[in-house]
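sorry for the late reply, my laptop died twice this morning and i had to redo everyting from scratch. anyway the thing you sent over, i finally got around to it. pasting the sequence first so we're on the same page, its 213 residues, then the predicted structure underneath. double check i copied it right bc i was rushing
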Amino acid sequence: MILNKNTAKKTAELLLSIKAIKLQPEDPFTWASGWNSPIYCDNRVTLSYVPIRNYIREHLSKIITDKYGKPDVIAGVATGAIAVGVLVAQELGVPFIYVRPEPKKHGRKNQIEGFLDKGQTVVVVEDLISTGKSSLNAVRALKEADATIKGMVAIFSYGFPIADENFLKENLELTTLSDYESLLEQALDSNYITEKNLYDLNTWRNDPGKWGK
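ok and here's the structure:
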């Protein structure tokens, strides 16, 4: 679920303007999964642009306070959401922790870094949602530590049906600043893409594993 359409398109405009999101249907990227993709998203780029960084911090914080009040702790998902999670925690004036994909194999062997007490309320911050697998892995680690998960917020989601299914199974609410549909609307409105590009981009989202092969 996006915050609202105006915010979704504005966020998409900002991400496109700094090339945090690139759309190249005629010269596709290759993801680590092996998928050919006309889109590449790296929201870490936003950290280098102060006005955009502030926009994201303020709007993610507003989602959290409007939906859940003030949580005890903000948790970022390593590694992409650590910095944005810190910004949100600072805005809300609450502690911050982050969650690794798996426990470290040395030292204290932590998966959760920072102090988390049993029963504390947590909102999880992500930068990007694809299938939701890594995000929900972090949620399960927090639940195993007896945290009370209020919900998750993120900057952007590709809107894959598998992600919707995964979040539904986990019974977790996800709210994002922008999503794939809003991105394409904004890209078309601003002449960043053509109608032909739009067709290719929609075709990819319908079957990303086979697109371009």
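The domain at 5-206 is CATH 3.40.50.2020 (Rossmann fold).
thats about all i looked at so far, will dig more tmrw
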